């Protein structure tokens, strides 16, 4: 909550003297990201989930748009609706059910978010990625983040899976970070490094699994970039992203990964390519991305995505 004392510029006409003891005369100054969810609040949410499920998850999964079925394969599941979790935001986007599912998958206790929070929904980045800290305090060691994304790399086709090995943080370029504001060292350091954010061992295992599944031709390793949305990109923006080495573009994941690395979680992330991004001007209507298409492609490819996640978790369990 914004403290009443933080408001320094009285509202009103230029030069007009307003009574500062009247709260309505004071502007609203947003609370810094780092103060939105103090450690104690995150701990309370984590306790609610651990006690409510009687399970301590090791792997956290964030389901991308239309990929909620990743949570449907969890067994002996305890399901929490976001509305019923104290201090939890609600999902407002189609394809994001708004449920937290805790249970067993391939011998591991996992917790999966069927619905993530996006910056364009009006949530500050710290709120979008707050559940990652909840996962950490629940005991999660591995974050699996998935997303639907537009393919900019001309070699990518709709339905392909891109394993993320790096990102370009466009919101960060604009000075926005989920770690902005006071740092709580109980989560992690003030200045976390982000090279090696995406766990190489897990990427290699996933590539091997891709071969076993016979989908290696539809699997890539690439760079993701998150923009604020909710608009899809212009051709000029897509050209610029391509020049920067971006292979796929979306509206999520990067701030979750930053938050996970800050608290030293191992990260595995992939993009399902739901549409091909045009990087040349044309009059074709086909070039326009739309959410229905994103959802339809995700539905078509959910089986392969579930299989990849399940097999990778099986391998993590086997080697632990
Ligand atoms: O939650 P993700 O990143 O998978 O969702 C993408 C980005 C937008 O929310 C939506 C656009 O179609 O899909
Ligand atoms: N920003 C962005 N997000 C997406 N999510 C799915 N497709 C796209 C896309 O083309 N651009």
From TrEMBL:
Keyword ATP-binding assigned: no
InterPro entries per record? Nucleoside_phosphorylase_d (IPR000845), Nucleoside_phosphorylase_sf (IPR035994), Pur_Nuc_Pase_Ino/Guo-sp (IPR011270), Purine_phosphorylase (IPR011268)
Q: Where are the transmembrane segments?
A: none
Q: Which UniProt keywords apply?
A: Glycosyltransferase, Transferase
Q: What CDD domains does this protein map onto?
A: PNP-EcPNPII_like (cd09009)
Pathway assignment reads: Purine metabolism; purine nucleoside salvage
Tell me which residues make up the Nucleoside phosphorylase domain.
58-314
Q: Function, please?
A: The purine nucleoside phosphorylases catalyze the phosphorolytic breakdown of the N-glycosidic bond in the beta-(deoxy)ribonucleoside molecules, with the formation of the corresponding free purine bases and pentose-1-phosphate.
State the name under which the record lists this protein.
Purine nucleoside phosphorylase
Record the organism. Answer: Drosophila willistoni (Fruit fly)
């Amino acid at each position: 909550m914004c403290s009443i004392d933080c408001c320094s510029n009285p509202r009103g006409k230029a030069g007009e003297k307003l009574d500062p003891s009247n709260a309505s005369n004071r502007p609203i100054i947003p609370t810094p990201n780092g103060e939105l969810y103090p450690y104690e609040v995150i701990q309370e949410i984590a306790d609610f989930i651990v006690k409510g499920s009687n399970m301590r998850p090791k792997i956290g999964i964030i389901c991308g748009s239309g990929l909620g079925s990743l949570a449907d394969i969890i067994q002996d599941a305890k399901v929490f609706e976001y509305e019923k979790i104290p201090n939890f935001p609600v999902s407002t986007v189609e394809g994001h059910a708004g449920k937290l599912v805790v249970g067993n998958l391939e011998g591991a206790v996992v917790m999966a978010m069927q619905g993530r929070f996006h910056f364009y929904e009006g949530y500050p980045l710290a709120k979008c990625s707050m559940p990652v800290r909840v996962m950490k305090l629940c005991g999660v060691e591995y974050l699996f983040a998935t997303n639907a994304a537009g393919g900019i790399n001309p070699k990518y086709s709709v339905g392909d899976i891109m394993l993320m090995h790096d990102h370009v943080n466009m919101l960060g370029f604009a000075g926005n970070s989920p770690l902005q504001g006071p740092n709580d060292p109980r989560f992690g350091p003030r200045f976390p490094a982000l090279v090696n954010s995406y766990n190489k061992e897990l990427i290699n295992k996933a590539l091997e699994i891709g071969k076993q599944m016979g989908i290696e031709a539809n699997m890539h390793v690439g760079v993701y970039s998150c923009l604020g949305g909710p608009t899809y990109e212009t051709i000029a923006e897509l050209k610029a992203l391509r020049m920067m080495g971006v292979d796929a573009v979306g509206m999520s994941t990067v701030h979750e990964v930053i938050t996970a690395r800050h608290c030293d979680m191992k990260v595995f992330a992939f993009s399902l390519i739901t549409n091909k991004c045009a990087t040349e001007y044309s009059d074709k209507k086909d070039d326009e991305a739309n959410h229905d298409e994103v959802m339809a492609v995700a539905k078509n490819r959910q089986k392969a995505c579930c299989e990849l996640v399940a097999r990778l978790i099986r391998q993590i369990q086997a080697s632990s």
